[in-house]
Amino acid sequence: xxxxxxxxxxxxxxxxxxxxxxxxxxxxxxxxxxxxxxxxxxxxxxxxxxxxxxxxxxxxxxxxxxxxxxxxxxxxxxxxxxxxxxxxxxxxxxxxxxxxxxxxxxxxxxxxxxxxxxxxxxxxxxxxxxxxxxxxxxxxxxxxxxxxxxxxxxxxxxxxxxxxxxxxxxxxxxxxxxxxxxxxxxxxxxxxxxxxxxxxxxxxxxxxxxxxxxxxxxxxxxxxxxxxxxxxxxxxxxxxxxxxxxxxxxxxxxxxxxxxxxxxxxxxxxxxxxxxxxxxxxxxxxxxxxxxxxxxxxxxxxxxxxxxxxxxxxxxxxxxxxxxxxxxxxxxxxxxxx
Length: 338
Known about the structure:
Radius of gyration: 20 Å
Catalytic activity: malonyl-[ACP] + acetyl-CoA + H(+) = 3-oxobutanoyl-[ACP] + CO2 + CoA
EC number: 2.3.1.180
Subunit structure: Homodimer.
Shape: globular
Distance between the termini: 31 Å
Domain Beta-ketoacyl-[acyl-carrier-protein] synthase III N-terminal: 111-193
Keywords: Acyltransferase, Cytoplasm, Fatty acid biosynthesis, Fatty acid metabolism, Lipid biosynthesis, Lipid metabolism, Multifunctional enzyme, Transferase
Number of strands: 15
Oligomer: single chain
Structural class: alpha+beta
């Protein structure tokens, strides 16, 4: 088998889609014992978007994907691979292929990837390998979740946090006759299953006897449960470490970062990570006040907003990190644009 020349990766387009319906902190105070001040001071969240009945993940993800493709200046038929990072698929067998059909990406293979709130970073790294190995040229990466499906709206520890949405990027192979230009500069991804119990959307079943001596389990997934203090401790310790490791692989220092885009979970986590890395607040992108924690979508939504408003420009160096259930965490360093 002939060895194919490695190719570089460029992230050339972004898109996002969020539901129109907003649930404010004041609205939540009518459901559970809380207040706008209590939520905002502890999380930084002011409102979150919620999918309405009949609104699917496929719909939101397809809109985000189409917007990313349009920004990239290519057509859906140019897409070779679609990766959907999600924990809330419309179909447990997978939703990526539905998106492939909906947007008309007729040549693309599509699959789902589940790594909870780390999903976008894990999918970014996964998609990059297909490009670097010369297998595919154009990869559409979508992070999307409708967590409102799985929130216990009587539990104020979790219902204040989560929102719905989707964000997408297009990754493209880069090459020239003389050299390969790789805009994905470094990454590091990690997992620790011994801490899995701190954040769950778990399956609960009961035994059902089919015939004498033959029983199976049948049930359903249960609402999200979380140990907030432990997740906070985990994030503020592990996220700076993994960003530093990714920077080391990229042969860069912290002061060479133009922007820090973390998973939008909690403003206190964003602030603590930035402080530990000595990254000034003006370099930290945050939009969780408007959307809450959108899981695998959050980094891509924040990236897209910053690109479209002109904050992030071609050539800017971005450090991004996801962290969450699994427990999983990971970081990637990349330059925006070709």
